[in-house]
UniProtKB/TrEMBL annotation:
Superkingdom, taxonomy of origin: Bacteria
All residue ranges annotated as the Ketoreductase domain in the record: 7-195
Entry protein name: Oxidoreductase
GO terms assigned for molecular function: oxidoreductase activity
PROSITE patterns: PROKAR_LIPOPROTEIN (PS51257)
Keywords (A to Z) from UniProt: Oxidoreductase
The family this protein is said to belong to: Belongs to the short-chain dehydrogenases/reductases (SDR) family.
rRNA-binding listed as a keyword: no
Length: 254
């Protein structure tokens, strides 16, 4: 049996990387999927592909750091499918640069896309989710929320905020049957992950294949993040709330 039958999922960053893997997996598991991603992303093509396979999916373009665009996108998904009962706050961007070379503009941009976005999207989605009787919020955090990865003060700060956003939300909304958890991947073989490795190399950090193998065995696959998110989205995790699930092959356990 499919694990998300009857659920309406909104996935930010759902057109690329692990977000795309989650869009595909959630649709295959029976959810109606609203893909929220940048207007210039592959969102429309991904939604069309899912519809061609007989699934229900729409693309609702938005920059998740823009309140008006977020509101429009959430309304679009709700108008198409009804109240959102699974929200995956996945969109996020990378910053890998020396702290002393970090500009105020860069700080504000990363915090807006990685942190403020969760506030905007979740605030827009929760009234409908509450009225529907509850749901599940999944935030894509990172090993960088608990490990100070080099050249990533800004990125780690944003992921630390994401980590606690997921946890504190769980406490405030558990009496309304809303669960909130985080998935925390290690290095993943996506555009984001490969660019990160490239940038870190430029800044002299050892992220060679050997170094990554020593830290986490191999790169994480996007579907491995999506499957952890599926568990949190589904009723299989009905009593898992405020948790951080690491998909890092014990990187942070060592
Ligand atoms: P990715 O770059 O492959 O895909 C991210 C998607 O988000 C893209 O489709 C992009 O268009 C979209 N996006 C970016 N900015 C957006 C915005 N302002 N509004 C709407 N959509 C936007 O990345 P990925 O590897 O899937 O990673 C995304 C998430 O996973 C981030 O939250 C990141 O912090 C986290 N993460 C990634 C890694 C890694 O190694 N790749 C590790 C740990 C955590």
């Amino acid at each position: 049996t499919r694990r998300l039958t009857g659920k309406v999922a909104l996935i930010t960053g759902g057109a690329g990387g692990c977000g795309l893997a989650a869009s595909e997996l959630f649709a295959a598991e029976g959810a109606k999927v609203g893909i929220v991603d940048l207007p210039q992303s592959q969102g429309e093509a991904v939604a069309q592909q899912l519809r061609d396979q007989g699934y229900e999916a729409i693309f609702a373009p938005a920059d998740v750091s823009d309140a008006a665009q977020v509101q429009r996108a959430v309304e679009t998904v709700e108008a198409a499918f009804g109240a959102i009962t699974v929200l995956m706050n996945h969109a996020g961007i990378l910053a890998a640069l020396p702290f002393l070379e970090t500009s105020e503009e860069e700080w504000d941009r990363i915090m807006a896309v990685n942190v403020k976005s969760m506030f905007l999207v979740t605030k827009a989605v929760l009234p409908g989710m509450i009225a529907a009787g509850g749901g599940s919020v999944i935030c894509t955090s990172s090993i960088s929320a608990v490990v100070g990865t080099p050249m990533e003060v800004l990125y780690c700060t944003s992921k630390g905020a994401c980590h606690m956003f997921a946890r504190a939300l769980a406490v405030e909304f558990r009496d309304r049957n809303i669960r909130s958890n985080a998935v925390c991947p290690g290095f993943i073989a996506t555009a984001h992950g490969l660019r990160e490795i490239d940038l870190l190399k430029q800044h002299g950090v050892d992220v060679s294949e050997e170094a990554i193998a020593a830290a986490q065995g191999r790169l994480c696959r996007p579907d491995e993040v999506a499957k952890a998110a599926l568990f949190l989205a589904s009723d299989d995790s009905s009593f898992v709330n405020g948790a951080h699930i690491f998909a890092d092959n014990a990187y942070t356990a060592i």
